[in-house]
């Protein structure tokens, strides 16, 4: 096989596995941008590798995992200095699908699950993702993280115990969740505070990730009355700029993309729905985390246009 033929063959193998590689990297990192960079670095290493692996899937999965672990270790230092709450970058569509593991894949990509994964060590997180989410055997996991199969079993047990203890209990019926989310966003568009409040759990939690780079009322609120009040305080400003609420699945859960009238992205919102009520609302406002969603609006410019530079209640 000529070098040109070999590169063409590797390119085809890599492109077939790209969705899997991205999905592994995203779950390890919680960042679309960093996951895409890890996948690209994996391709560069595969393209220039002097050896031809017996299993491209095992080889490439190991490479992207090692790269993601290294990136996560450095990212954790940066996150310690992050301004305000940190929320994973929103994922609108998971490119990897496996009917035999659809439940594991959907559960593991939720904002709640990714935030639980943040509490694990980088090695525990990588082992959990490879073993529990994607079903890799322990020999493959061991090769990917550079530990023995026995050590990986122990890492998996610790990670699973932690994840099971904190795992959220979402409503199972997808259609019911979508209908409740639709009612929620309709109530917001109409400025219906009572309709909004009745959809919220009494102890609902709302958190916003602006990273100090966009305006926000506050980083978090708790309780149905306060959350409804804050949302209704934002509504008049949103209406004045011709804002559009575009319902969209976010990290496998009901959510929406909020846009200016010109289509530029303001923020995303993901809803956790439990027992027929909205339990958690997570909003990503940080423009650095929204570039993959579409052209991003300047939040400060929008605030000036909507409210003379003043946040609600200021």
UniProtKB/TrEMBL annotation:
InterPro entries: ECF_Sigma-70_Domain, NTF2-like_dom_sf, RNA_pol_sigma-70_dom, RNA_pol_sigma-70_ECF, RNA_pol_sigma70_r2, RNA_pol_sigma70_r4_t2, RNA_pol_sigma_r2, RNA_pol_sigma_r3/r4-like
Protein name: RNA polymerase sigma-70 factor
Database matches in PANTHER family: ECF RNA POLYMERASE SIGMA FACTOR SIGJ, SIGMA 19 FACTOR
Keyword annotations: Sigma factor, Transcription, Transcription regulation
Swiss-Prot/TrEMBL GO biological process terms: DNA-templated transcription initiation
Annotated source species: Actinacidiphila cocklensis
One Pfam family named in its UniProt record: Sigma70_r4_2
Ranges where the SnoaL-like domain occurs: 181-263
Similarity annotation: Belongs to the sigma-70 factor family. ECF subfamily.
